[in-house]
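Note on ligand handling. Small-molecule inputs were canonicalized before submission; formal charges were left as drawn, and no protonation-state enumeration was performed. Where a ligand contained multiple stereocentres, the stereochemistry in the source SMILES was retained. For nicotinamide-adenine-dinucleotide, this procedure yielded the string shown in the input block below.
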Amino acid sequence: MSEMKTDGKNRWLISGGCGFIGISLLAYLLEKKQNIQIRVLDNLTVGTKDDLLEVTSFSETDLAAISGSPKGVELVVGDIRDYKTCLKCCDGIDIIVHLAANTGVAPSVENPRLDMESNVVGIFNLIEAARTNKVGRFVFASSGAAVGEVVPPIHEEKTPRPVSPYGASKLAGEAYCSAYSRTFGIKTVSLRFGNVYGPRSKHKSSVVAKFIKQALAGKTLEIYGDGSQTRDYIYIDDLIQAIILSTQTAVGGEVFQIATYKETTVNEITHKIKALIESDTGKTVNIIYGKPRLGDVRRNYSDISKAKQILGFVPKHDLTAGLKNTLEYFMRIER
Ligand SMILES: NC(=O)c1ccc[n+]([C@@H]2O[C@H](COP(=O)([O-])OP(=O)(O)OC[C@H]3O[C@@H](n4cnc5c(N)ncnc54)[C@H](O)[C@@H]3O)[C@@H](O)[C@H]2O)c1
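Structure output:
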């Protein structure tokens, strides 16, 4: 990946920083950026302190002890549903990357209220705390799910029609980012991620991580529906590049599709995973078909022209190579 520009803005708050994308972002920032100060806010419902330790040493800080910028890498164990926590965590910060969320369609169908509280009240608390603390930049992890069932490819001009509560809550987040940019001048960016996969995804239950874990454990892979549903799979390093670019570009209130512009069926990706695992481990991988899942859209891939034009975003990783790296990661942590 390219070197980071130094813009003097070195004090970052990463909400959800112990999760898959959070620790990957931290690893990148710590490798590329000098004199960086990072505060991580995470309630540890998914990511753990050990996950964070895999990429950096850190100090754990109580809310009461926060005063001004983070010192090195700080972890605050706290919840974005609590406004006072958000207010304290934004103290002395230049850039917020807001990743903490109830992630995924299935949990939002099971518990729509929890999804709303984490993803709607949560972003409101954090962006309001950003305004109060005069934080200039706010990057929000949105999702293709905010757009929902539209004729693909998804792009920023399509009218959103969320299918799942998760999509609805992400769309609400985009709305606050737009409003806080236009009314209060915060440089907000909503990045609609495709399906992210790659190393460090051990907690994820999205298709790539789940199927690799199950296949390595000798379990049968169950495809929901007939497997002809499509997604746009983006490798984690490409996604991190998009986040970094969005913090360096002078835009506010904008939404960007961050994916690859490639449509892959669940059948295709499952058979790629099966072939890789069978050739690397000699194990046989069995696949069965089950019922379709509520809230899932049929086809989903993204036109990324706007991100390319305005952010200079170009994904570089091909699916087979990305899957190979991901499989190697899972085989490494299994040993
Ligand atoms: N991974 C993907 O494919 C994908 C796709 C589209 C959008 N996104 C979005 O990107 C963001 C990061 O995703 P991820 O894959 O790293 O997820 P993740 O679940 O690995 O990480 C999220 C982190 O947020 C923390 N968290 C959850 N609720 C919280 C709360 N109320 N307060 C504080 N911390 C809380 C969790 O403990 C976890 O460590 C999420 O907003 C997700 O919706 C991810």
